[in-house]
Amino acid sequence: MGLEMEKLNLKMKDISGSTLKEVNAEGVNFDDINLSKSKVNNANMSGMNFNDIHAGEMQFTNTNLSGTSIQHANMSHMRIDHVHLFGTEFVNIVLPQEGDGNYDSDGNYKPIVFNNCDLSNMEINNCNIKGLKINGVLVEELLKINNFDS
């Protein structure tokens, strides 16, 4: 398939409901853009950098995100399904702070859940594990029983 080369410079445009199919969009810069409820299927998104994002209703299917960096993101209520995570690092993962959009002063947040996952060789270091359960068992209690500091 031969692609026609065209550089677009869109500013202050509403392209809601548009479809991009069989498009090479390597090196595209999205700045101050609303991609809510967007779907990305069968895409190579390796090496992308997401900064200051809210990814609540985006869907990625058959998508290569290897080498991708995500910083300052609100990924609350996201569902991640059938994903390869070997070599992935989660750093400075926090609950919303006062002033953040999803902040709840009572701390009533839905739990983060891993179901039917292979967590072989997983490491948890220097993390707050208060309330962490594995198969319904509080890890804090297991550590106390075995004389480990949590």
TrEMBL record:
<dbReference type="Pfam" id="PF00805">
    <property type="entry name" value="Pentapeptide"/>
</dbReference>
<keyword id="KW-0677">Repeat</keyword>
<dbReference type="InterPro" id="IPR001646">
    <property type="entry name" value="5peptide_repeat"/>
</dbReference>
<protein>
    <recommendedName>
        <fullName>Pentapeptide repeat-containing protein</fullName>
    </recommendedName>
</protein>
